[in-house]
Amino acid sequence: MIPEINVLCKMEDLLNIASDLTRLKILYSILEQEKNVGEIVKEVECSQSLVSHQLKVLRKAHLVSTRKESTKVYYSLADDHVVNLLKVTQEHVQEEL
């Protein structure tokens, strides 16, 4: 059964947001543990402004959550659904290789 159109539209939006290479790198960077922007920048090898912008997009899409400690903000995956989305997608792609 096909989901309702509003559900399909939200799914499309979510998959479009997650399909960006930099965003995927960021999501994988925080898959195992939360990190601050500086740590993410080093791991994904992008500028701080680009990482910060992409984190804002991911937060707005509810893919990433934050925790503030003193002056630093730590980012983590929002929930297990995001973890599962990454793992299922990776498994699917690796089957084709």
Write structural notes for this entry.
With 97 residues, this protein is an alpha+beta fold. The protein has five helices and three strands. The protein has a three-stranded antiparallel beta sheet with strand order 1-3-2. The N and C termini lie far apart (30 Å).
Please count the helical segments.
Answer: 5
> Any idea what the shape is?
globular
Query: Which whole number gives the mean pLDDT?
Result: 96
Counted beta strands: 3
Which stretches are low in confidence, meaning pLDDT under 50 for 5 or more residues running?
none
State the order of secondary-structure elements, H for helix, E for strand.
HHEHHEEH
Could you give a short account of the major beta sheet?
3 strands, antiparallel
Brief descriptors of the model:
97 residues, alpha+beta, three-stranded antiparallel beta sheet, 5 helices
What is the compact description of this entry?
The chain is an alpha+beta fold.
